[in-house]
Amino acid sequence: MDRRRGAAILFVAPFLLCFVAVTIVPLAYAAALSLFTEKASGLGFGPAETVFAGVDNYVRALSDPAFRGGFLIIAAYCLVYLPLMVGGALVLALLLDSAAAKMKRLLQLALFLPHAVPGLIAAIIWVYLYTPGLSPIVALLEWDFLASDHVLLSVVNIATWEWIGYNVIIFYAALQAVPREILEAATVDGARGLRLAFAIKVPMIRAAVVMAGLFTVIGAIQLFTEPKIINRAASTVSSSWTPNMYALTAAFERHDYGLAAAASMLIALLGAVLSFAVTRATARRSSR
Questions:
Q1: What global pTM score does this model have?
Q2: What membrane topology is annotated for this entry (predicted)?
């Protein structure tokens, strides 16, 4: 038993060390930094002093309309992005898993290939395609992708292009694990086409769908790369358009590191709460 325990610790130790180094330590440092602020001494001519601020930085972040507005944008983004991403990936995976699908390997590669492109490069490519005077698509469709009414959909399009192939692979792998005898029995009972897909296959991979939905929401909360690149090309995306962009602006443009750390901790807390809520709800539903 001791040898098994030692072997288990040996295998788990590298992960724990990396997890502590890249997750726990930065979170602890950000939490400590969020409790302090810098104030100029005297008439403002002396060096700034770091003073304990308590929860003042959190209050400042939550009372700032720009920070709260970023979460409203994330909510609108999720309303469009989540069903498009999860629903679209699920439909594509079901099509790949169907008996009528041809060249499955080639289709999997084609769908996954955009995910292999770094997010920064993908955003730059799409900004060129969105820019009037540079893009043939804008002239052809006569549509301003960077207008204030359209820019959210443009960001959703970039993220969907990047990530839908990743989710297709997850769902397709889950579909391949569905016992064939269950599908054969359903077919014998008369299940065909859409009924077989949505009444038999989808419930069998519910865990994978929930996991993909959870990761999609967490990724949406951390939305940064796509709007940051668009911010360089259009004024419709401000420097505090999302909560992550707000934290970056507070840290590196306003040099208010306490406020930036507090905003980051609030973003992390929201992600943790959503993860816990979805996991708890899924566990309760599975136990019924």
A1: 0.87
A2: Multi-pass membrane protein
